[in-house]
Design brief:
The complex is a heterotrimer of chains A (127), B (463) and C (649).
Chain A (H helix, E strand, L loop, with lengths): L10 H24 L6 H4 L18 H18 L1 H6 L1 H8 L1 H24 L6
Chain B lengths: L1 H18 L3 H22 L18 H24 L7 H20 L3 H18 L7 H32 L4 H11 L5 H17 L8 H8 L2 H25 L5 H24 L4 H22 L4 H28 L13 H4 L1 H15 L5 H15 L3 H25 L13 H19 L2 H4 L4
Helix pairs in contact in B: 1-2, 1-4, 2-3, 3-4, 3-10, 3-13, 3-18, 4-5, 4-10, 5-6, 5-10, 6-8, 6-9, 8-10, 9-10, 9-12, 10-12, 10-13, 11-12, 11-17, 12-13, 12-16, 12-17, 13-15, 13-16, 13-18, 15-17, 15-18, 16-18
Chain C lengths: L1 H4 L11 H27 L5 H28 L4 E12 L2 E10 H24 L6 H20 L3 H19 L6 H32 L4 H7 L8 H17 L8 H4 L5 H10 L4 H8 L1 H5 L2 H22 L5 H21 L3 H28 L17 H15 L5 H16 L1 H26 L7 H6 L5 H16 L14 H6 L13 H27 L10 H7 L4 H43 L3 H4 L3 H24 L1
Antiparallel strand pairs in C: 1-2
Helix pairs in contact in C: 2-3, 2-5, 3-4, 3-5, 4-5, 4-11, 4-16, 4-21, 5-6, 6-7, 7-9, 9-12, 9-14, 11-16, 14-15, 14-19, 15-16, 15-18, 15-19, 16-17, 16-18, 16-21, 17-19, 17-21, 18-19, 19-23
The chains are: A mainly alpha (127), B mainly alpha (463), C mainly alpha (649).
Chain lengths: 127, 463, 649
């Protein structure tokens, strides 16, 4: 591995950056230029299935949505840890013996304890 | 290490005591548990740290870590003695608050014992995230909410800098372990690549935010004065101690030989922190906000200990943080009692005449203020003395001059409290104090006195 | 220089029964007053006043007896200088500090003065404070003061000295503000504290410098190492000037003297003990203790002489036209302290100590006498409202008269002998010093006579109630007065001029510790006689002048012209107010106004208000102020990185 990296090493990254930005800019420009333009009061209003919209769209809604969403993300991410572990399970067993198994048991039990806590706290209850 | 595991389990267990409604047992469990953790931690003091190779050198419980952890555990335990009276009106989520405090402590211990940047980051996050929530535990008070969200926003902002710094350092040194980075620093001292220097500086920014060093202190006064006082106490004591433990460990164990790089910056921050903290504290009308600024100025004194960085620095920083924590505990403790029944009025006038009907509280507060002001023979004096002498040994005379002048300024606003308490005018009525609460305050005040007379009892623990 | 320093080294330990017992005795000496403090502080309110007073006094008596034992043993020669280590204390890096105490002739002398006069004043206080509700609190503070004062004079290193130094400052603060219900008294207490801290800053820096130069704060190490330095070595000059700044604060010298007159707000025994006899002389003691260092710095010595002389004159002129009995005595104290510093400055260290001792006698006497007068007058301190008291309160009158004689320098009283020595030393140093010091001494006579005539002669000028109330004080107050009167009369005999058949007992006693740098005075005997004659003539003239003006039945006490400037103390307080205090307050107000109000309060309070109105908090977060914080942080980070880059590249 080279200790010192040169500026030239970054050129591919630079090119990719340019292409990415270029693509976005080009597409936006193109749609803007090619697309039909019809301006009018009705056209600028947000579309609500033909019904006239009332009030602000940015209404506060129940915190339970957030709670559920964040809990989902939390457990979802934690489950991701199990993939590499499962894939490499045989190697683990070979190298570390039962320790490789028990570390996942500990992880899962903490996981379950958390889940149990959430349920008991009523965080998933809707009403 | 066993202590951290045990403490984490204790935290989880505490959460469940709330679910199973073991309300009466909750506090005893926590306190006894903390005592157990203290003993487990103390056992590590006598073993050689190499035993932790099992944890792939993620943490190392050397004497530095053990001693700081012991102080953190002790102060937290004392805080729990104050909890019952402070949260007596809170009935629903008390177990969650206790659990969060314990998790914060876990983070603090990791910050004292990390030997890998990953653990430093994890420690800081484990410490901070519960704190963001704790700052908002007075849910019905708008100030508490404000403190919480401000702390969260500013905290995550600064964490970004810390991470960015770590990434840059990793980019240069290709490792996260303290040993590895240290070897890299030693090998390249005097000719460090810019990317590495930038990494150090950005990490410093992140850490200075945590210790509330000026000009990264903007969050501190608002958060301290907005958060529930008990949590403010926690932030001023345990969190500050942990932050300094981490800062010094980081600088000493990894960037020690790169001292010329960060010395001037930290010197300036130390001076600025003291000056801004002290002069802003002078003109506060509320005691709580005054104590918040006092906490900032004390961070300035501690930074002098950090930049001195010789064989005695760790000890003197430890002594100072311990003593400062004890004095803060007492002063915030009395403040909580005074504001408990008067609708939260924490101005100096609320303290007027306290000595008449509550002589014990006034006495405790006086001791704490005298210690903070650095009047011998109280421990606060030796805290400053050790720090200053330490810096003098390296010949840093100007920063010591600034510090001495600042500590003279500080005397004014600490004495303002004492003068108010012994004023004649209107006196608050007798304040009801639970025995456990008073016990913790008395123990802390007694320690201030004893440690002032026998500073050697704790000042040599790391040798 | 080596020969001069030889005496510093602690003499080889002579082991006898007494030196073995010394640690115990030393501990008892110091801890007895502390026990008295603890007892009175925690239990005092539950005890009867008598018991609490007796305990307070008895502990001091115990200490006095121990000090007397030390004195007897030092005279008999069982030891000359003995260092007692009560315990090891702290280690900081290469420095080590212990609770070491030094018992030598200098500290024994101070112990005797502190505990002896301290005991008398404790006894006096039993009578004086009897009606006060804070009786036991008063005694606890007094005992604590004695404890710290003993630490100050017995410590064997600068650190212990400093602890005592700060401790007595604290006690002084507590006792000046003892009647804390009066806001003016509290302000006086604060002023004393702050002025002292300015001096303390000098002392602290001096200590740091000593540590830096010598690597130790122990007297024995420092003084023996000082032999390696030549005269006027910059390091030594810096150290001594800094130490002297400390002494200026504690001993109320120019320009840090204004706190002492205000300190008279405390109860009168406090004025006598702390602000006349003991604490204010701590600066003198410290300079004498460090005489080896000061002798190496002629520059500082000259500075001390000039400051002392200026203070003596300045305070003396102010005292001329004061109308408050305690204020006169206070300025007189400042002036007399100036005399002590003159003596130190010209190198006559033992003379300074001698005047310290005699001044302790007669000034304590005068203050206690004034206290007795105030007691009789029912709290009145204004001498324009007194007059003709000589017949009403006889014992007070006689003892006070002796005090006035001593301070005015009636031949062969203690004050005459000690001042006479100072004047002689000045004469040796330079004629101009002699003349100026003589003028200061003449002023002393004038204002003391004025005070005396106004108080005790003429006719009574107070109200009818006061006249009816006049009475002699109880024995617990008059007995200490008598003892002090005797001491004031004969105290000078320990150091009597040769020409009058005296001996140098005090000089000889202090010689193992203190070396005077002033040479033997030529023609001293002749000068002595001249001074005696001049004194007699001066006293007679001043007697008639003051008698004519002040032994009167009507006295307004209002002045015009330059006299008014003097009566208003040269407006020093006002000048300090204008030059230092108000700019400082303005600066702080500026910081408060702009930094605090605009940047922090402005945003937060504004936010809070809108929060109440709008009731929605989250929206506020986007309305600016946290944005400001983040913005400030980003700017700070940029500056932080930029500065660091500029410094290093």
């Amino acid at each position: 591995m080279k200790e010192q990296s040169l500026v030239s090493d970054y050129i591919p990254i630079l090119i990719q950056l340019c292409v990415a930005i270029g693509f976005v800019v080009a597409t936006m420009l193109a749609t803007h230029l090619i697309g039909p333009k019809r301006k009018g009061a009705n056209k600028l209003e947000s579309f609500e299935c033909g019904i006239e919209s009332e009030g602000n769209a940015r209404l506060p809604f129940s915190v339970k949505y957030f709670l559920t969403a964040i809990l989902f993300v939390l457990f979802d991410v934690e489950v991701i840890f199990m993939y590499p572990w499962a894939v490499n399970y045989k190697t683990f067993l070979h190298e570390m013996g039962m320790q490789g198994f028990f570390s996942m048991v500990i992880f899962l039990s903490l996981f379950l304890v958390g889940f149990y806590y959430i349920v008991r706290k009523g965080a998933l209850k809707w009403e | 290490m066993n202590a951290i595991i045990a403490l984490s389990l204790l935290g989880i267990f505490t959460l469940f005591t709330g679910i199973f409604n073991w309300r009466k047992a909750m506090l005893p469990i926590v306190v006894i548990g903390l005592a157990g953790v203290f003993v487990l931690n103390g056992m590590d003091y006598f073993t050689t740290p190499s035993w932790y190779a099992d944890y792939t050198h993620m943490v190392i419980f050397d004497r530095y870590a053990v001693v700081f952890s012991a102080a953190l555990i002790m102060i937290t335990a004392m805080l729990f003695f104050l909890c019952k009276q402070y949260y007596q009106k809170e009935d629903n989520n008390i177990s969650d608050i206790y659990g969060l405090i314990l998790f914060t402590l876990v983070g603090g211990m990791l910050m004292a014992s990390f030997s890998n940047f990953a653990m430093l980051f994890l420690g800081i996050e484990i410490l901070s995230i519960p704190l963001y929530i704790l700052a908002g535990t007075k849910r019905l008070e708008v100030t508490s909410n404000e403190a919480s969200i401000k702390y969260f926003l500013m905290g995550s902002f600064s964490t970004g800098f810390l991470l960015f710094g770590m990434a840059l350092v990793y980019g240069a040194a290709h490792t996260f372990t303290l040993d590895g980075i240290r070897q890299y620093t030693d090998a390249h001292a005097g000719d460090l690549p810019t990317i590495f220097v930038a990494g150090i500086m950005l990490m410093l920014v992140g850490m200075l935010f945590k210790v509330s060093g000026a000009p990264f202190h903007f969050w501190a006064p608002d958060v301290y004065s907005g958060a529930p006082t008990l949590i403010t106490t926690f932030m001023a004591t345990v969190v500050k101690t942990a932050a300094f433990a981490a800062l010094y460990r980081l600088l000493f164990y990894t960037f020690g030989s790169a001292k010329p790089i960060w010395f001037d910056a930290l010197w300036g921050v130390a001076a600025l922190t003291m000056i801004i903290g002290n002069f802003s504290a002078l003109y506060q009308h509320g005691v709580k906000r005054m104590l918040a600024y006092s906490s900032i100025s004390n961070a300035g004194y501690l930074l002098i200990g950090v930049i001195a960085m010789n064989t005695h620095s760790a000890n003197s920083i430890f002594y100072y943080t311990l003593v400062y924590s004890l004095a803060s505990l007492v002063s915030f403790g009395v403040l909580m009692l005074v504001t408990q029944d008067n609708g939260g009025d924490d101005s100096y006038t609320a303290f007027k005449g306290l000595a008449r009907n509550n002589p014990a509280l006034a006495g405790l507060m006086t001791l704490a203020m005298l210690s903070l002001a650095g009047i011998p023979p109280l421990a606060g004096f030796f805290g400053k003395y050790y720090i200053f002498i330490n810096a003098m040994e390296n010949g840093y005379i100007y920063i010591v001059l600034i510090a001495v002048a600042n500590s003279l300024v500080g005397i004014y606003y600490y004495f303002k409290v004492i003068v108010a308490m012994f004023a004649k005018d209107t006196a608050p009525t007798k304040i009801a104090v639970q025995p456990a609460y008073l016990f913790a305050l008395v123990v802390a005040a007694a320690l201030l006195f004893v440690l002032g007379i026998f500073p050697d009892w704790v000042s040599g623990l790391m040798n | 220089m080596k020969a001069l320093l030889a005496h510093i080294e602690i003499s080889p330990e002579i082991h006898n029964g007494f030196t073995d017992a010394m640690p115990m005795l030393m501990a008892a000496l110091i801890l007895l007053p502390f026990l008295g403090f603890v007892f009175n502080f925690f239990l005092g309110q539950r005890l009867s006043k008598t018991l609490s007073g007796v305990i307070g006094s008895a502990t001091i008596l115990g200490s006095f007896i121990i000090a007397a034992t030390f004195f007897a043993q030092s005279i008999s020669g069982s030891f000359t200088s003995h260092q007692v280590c009560l315990m090891d204390w702290i280690e900081v890096g290469k420095y080590k500090f212990s609770f070491n105490f030094l018992i030598d002739n200098l500290s024994i002398m101070m112990m005797l003065i502190i505990t002896g006069i301290g005991f008398l004043i404790h006894v006096y206080s039993i009578g004086y404070m009897h009606h006060d509700e804070g009786f036991s609190r008063f005694f606890s503070y007094l005992n604590l003061f004695i404890f710290f004062m003993l630490l100050l004079v017995t410590g064997a290193n600068y650190l212990i000295l400093f602890i005592g130094w700060e401790g007595v400052g604290l006690c002084s603060y507590l006792l000046i503000g003892f009647w804390f219900k009066n806001q003016e008294y509290n302000n006086a207490a604060k002023k004393a504290f702050i002025m002292n801290r300015i001096g303390d800053l000098g002392f602290l820096l001096g200590m740091f410098k000593i540590l830096d130069v010598f690597g130790s704060l122990n007297f024995s190490d420092v003084f023996s190492a000082a032999g390696g330095f030549t005269a006027n070595d910059p390091a030594i000059v810096i150290i001594t000037v800094l130490l002297f700044i400390g002494a200026c604060g504690k001993s109320a010298q120019l320009p840090l003297f204004t706190w002492l007159p205000d300190a008279m707000a405390g109860p009168t025994p406090v004025s006598a003990l702390i602000h006349a006899a003991t604490m204010v002389t701590a600066g003198v003691y410290m300079v004498v203790r460090s005489n080896v260092l000061f002798a190496l710095s002629p520059f500082t010595m000259e500075l001390i002489t000039i400051v002392g002389l200026a203070t003596a004159l300045f305070a003396g002129t102010i005292a001329l036209f004061q109308n408050d009995i305690k204020k006169v005595l206070a300025y007189s104290t400042v002036s007399q302290l100036g005399f002590m510093f003159i003596a130190l400055g010209v190198g006559a260290f033992t003379t300074g100590m001698f005047h310290l001792m005699t001044h302790a006698f007669f000034k304590a006497l005068l203050f206690l006498g004034a206290g007795s007068v105030i007691h009789a007058m029912g709290g009145e301190q204004d001498i324009t409202k007194m007059g003709g008291l000589s017949k009403k309160i006889k014992i007070t009158f006689i003892t006070f008269t002796i005090g006035v004689m001593a301070i005015a320098g009636f031949p062969f009283t203690s004050g005459f002998v000690s001042k006479d020595e100072i004047l002689l030393a000045d004469f040796q140093h330079g004629k101009i010093y002699f003349i100026l010091a003589t003028i200061a001494a003449i002023m002393t006579v004038f204002y003391m006579f004025r005070l005396w005539f106004l108080t005790f002669f003429g006719s009574f000028r107070g109200t009818h109630d006061q006249e009816h109330h006049l009475h002699e004080s109880p024995p617990s107050m008059t007995v200490p007065l008598m003892v002090l009167a005797i001491l004031s009369l004969v105290g000078g005999f320990v150091q009597f001029p040769h020409i009058f058949g005296g001996h140098d007992y005090l000089n000889q006693y202090l010689s193992p510790v203190v070396t005077n740098t002033i040479q033997e005075i030529e023609g001293a005997d002749k000068l002595e006689i001249e001074i005696l004659i001049a004194t007699c003539i001066g006293l007679v003239i001043l007697w008639f002048i003051t008698k004519k003006n002040y032994a009167v039945s009507e006295f307004k006490g209002e002045y015009t012209g330059f006299k008014k400037v003097l009566a208003d103390k040269y407006y020093v307080d006002e000048i300090y107010e204008a030059l230092i205090i108000s700019p400082f307050q303005k600066m702080s107000a500026f910081i408060t106004k702009y930094v605090e109000v605009i940047f922090i309060d402005g945003f937060v309070n504004g936010a809070g208000k809108v929060a109440q109105v709008a009731g929605s908090y989250i929206r506020l977060l986007q309305s600016g102020h946290i944005g400001y914080y983040l913005f400030a942080m980003v700017i700070s980070i940029v500056v932080f990185l930029l500065l660091n880059t500029i410094i290093h590249f």
